[in-house]
Design goal:
mainly alpha; MetI-like fold
Length: about 300
């Protein structure tokens, strides 16, 4: 993970500096004089060679310092932390919905393979997988927030700052918006993984021994299909933390996704670099946890 993270830091830093535009010009505006722009560039260290800027940035990372935001005038870690609460809650609630919806329906679809139930569930999952999230979010907002007034339409007051867990109701509609297409993918994956296992010899042997069908499905089929399902759920979680900018925009949520887009438009290099590096690290940690879980899910897998 350490060499991979080091290589990722080089790639992230290099690509960010290929983005057209000068942060000093963006901050000062088009009416700024060249002297003012040059003074700000010197103050921010943007006039130094790229490799010098990278070494300074990397040395700060090793000390736990991702630098200071050009726009917010705050440490990047504080800026990311201020938006992380929303994204983490969205990811956790959405993952719970995805698992509760996707896995049972996928199991049912596999058990009822090629029946009208399987065809109906497969068609429904393909429909939700194809629906644009912004369209689904706007319709959920119109029905449940405008017409029925069951949930708030936008925003998210901090749970941590207020101590009011009731504020999570602000995230119900955004999480449903994200859970629908992702549940459809888990349904398809669970179904296909279980159908692969159902055809194995050990399943036929279990049936020949007269074991109850529910025990065969849960113990012999579902457990052996879990590896691919857990892998998909792990990377779905990271995607929900970092890649929900459309949903965050529709529901006006202060999350990581919107922060990335806003920082790109502002040419706020330190924030962009910090967020991408944190996301890369999160992907690596999730990948590590998923790999370690294989040995727990399948006793045949051993790590020496």
């Amino acid at each position: 993970m350490i060499p991979s993270l080091f290589l990722a830091s080089i790639i992230v830093f290099s690509f960010i500096h290929f983005i057209p535009g000068d942060p000093a010009v963006v901050m000062l505006g088009d009416m700024a004089t060249p002297e003012q722009v040059q003074q700000l560039r010197e103050a921010l260290g943007l006039d130094r060679p790229v490799y010098v800027q990278y070494i300074r940035w990397l040395s700060g990372i090793l000390r736990g310092d991702l630098g200071n935001s050009i726009f917010f005038h705050q440490p990047v870690t504080r800026v990311i932390a201020s938006r992380a609460e929303t994204s983490i809650f969205i990811a956790l609630i959405s993952m719970a919905l995805i698992a509760l919806i996707g896995i049972p329906i996928g199991v049912l679809s596999a058990v009822k393979y090629n029946s009208w139930i399987d065809q109906a569930l497969s068609s429904l999952s393909m429909f939700f997988a194809s629906v644009p999230t912004f369209w689904l979010g706007l319709n959920l907002m119109f029905i449940f927030a405008v017409m029925l007034r069951w949930f708030p339409s936008s925003g998210f007051p901090s749970v941590i700052e207020s101590g009011n867990w009731g504020n999570l109701r602000y995230l119900i509609l955004p999480c449903l918006t994200l859970a629908a297409p992702n549940s459809a993918l888990i349904i398809r994956l669970t179904r296909s993984s279980m159908l692969d296992v159902i055809r194995e010899d050990h399943v036929r042997t279990a049936r020949a021994k007269g074991l109850p069908e529910w025990k065969i499905i849960l113990k012999h089929v579902f457990r052996n299909a879990l590896i691919s399902i857990v892998s998909a759920l792990g990377f779905t979680f990271v995607a929900l933390v970092s890649g929900t900018v459309v949903t965050e925009t529709v529901f006006s949520l202060p999350g990581i996704g919107r922060l990335v887009v806003e920082s790109i438009l502002r040419r706020d290099y330190p924030v962009i670099q910090g967020i991408i590096l944190v996301i890369v690290l999160l992907y690596m940690l999730i990948n590590l946890l998923v790999d370690l879980s294989y040995a727990f899910l399948d006793p045949r897998i051993k790590y020496s």
